[in-house]
Amino acid sequence: MSYAERIKPDLQFVKDLQAAGGEACKKCYQCATCSVACPLAPPENPFPRKEMVWAQWGLKDRFSGDIDIWLCHNCQTCSDLCPRGARPGDLISAIRNITYRDLVEPSIIGKWMSSAKDLPKLIAIPAVLYLFIWLISAGFGLPQGEIVYGKLFPGDFTIDPIFGLVALFVAFSFYKGVTKLWKSFDKTIPTTLHIGEKVKKPSLIESIKAVILDEIATHVKWNECGNDNTERYKGHLSLFYGFVALAIVTSVVAVAHWGGKIVHFIEPLGHTPMPLWSPVKLLANVGALALLYGLTMLTRRRLNVDPGKSTSSYYDWYLLGVIWAVALTGLGSEIFRLAGVAALAYPTYYLHLVAVFMLFAYLPWSKLGHLVYRTTALVYAHQAGRLPLKREEEKIFRV
Questions:
Q1: pTM higher than 0.90
Q2: What is the spatial distance between Cα 119 and Cα 109, in angstroms, rounded to a whole number?
Q3: Percent of the chain whose predicted confidence (pLDDT) is above 90
Q4: 263, 235, 270: which is closest to 249 by C-alpha?
Q5: What is the DSSP string of 332-351?
Q6: What is the pLDDT of residue 388?
Q7: DSSP states of 287-333 as a string?
Q8: Which residues pair with 323 in a beta bridge?
Q9: How far apart are CA 382 and CA 391, in angstroms?
Q10: What backbone phi and psi angles, to 5 degrees, belong to 199?
């Protein structure tokens, strides 16, 4: 029985997509080269052809629960081979950028994140906060004697409480975002998408393990996907493990400092500043160098990209800029402290606090949030059978 469906284009959605990096989508004439060329698109209902149609028609609702926008690794094979220069890879990135913006409340942060004109507002929040602390601590002056950043920004009363609240805020926001994503997938994806031989559905723990070991920890698909992505692969992997190293350092210091008030023998691990030969300090410096290496690789790749095949959006440059600021001000704070230049050390540390706040407080609305959202989508896709199983997994899950 045939039926008619009324199409209701959302023109504002089309404009938002074009502003977020998908401005070339109107060039698409549905040849399906992108879906055929994509090394990751499943044979059943492949992407990104259908996303190109929805975007051209402004069918915003179709993207709600579309798990495929998270499976794309943006290798740009589809854009390289597109005969019309419609840049499907950029469109997928643009859709994700819009999703970050609107996924969780307060949505005003997402709107500010999407436009360069609102960047001063994002900077002003931590800048004013830490200037106020500086004013209370030293009246905008500089502490005398040995350079210890705790003199200006006491950890127990300023740094730890602020970032503790930020961590809770970010964790709650991610919880809402992940829950919303998961429910949207439930509405659009069948229980299983496997065709042919019957396959046992993996458990949630099995799917999480497979995604972490085969995707997140190795980043293997960043290199296997598409053409030569060595620079991109090394950049993302270095950046990822740089953050892992710094997260470990921060956790060790926090646990030792606060836990040391109860278990006294671990308290020395939390004392800062640490000597350069401290294992924790060494790990921190290795993590910082990994960030710089990864940033260099990714920034060089962005600068050398062929504008006819791909473009870099404001979202891309915002994230790279903030991470550059975190890495350079962090190393600068250490170098100026060791050199004993208080006039440079304290202002640099202030800028470091502002940059770190911007990186983490706005995380659920930034491109870096895909580390959580993409992982969620990959786990769901693994359970639903949207991801191809490896041979080892086939042996386990086939019945």
A1: no
A2: 10
A3: 33
A4: 270
A5: HHHHHHHHT-HHHHHHHHHH
A6: 58
A7: HHHHHHHHHHHHHHHHHT--TTT----HHHHHHHHHHHHHHHHHHHH
A8: none
A9: 14
A10: -125, 135
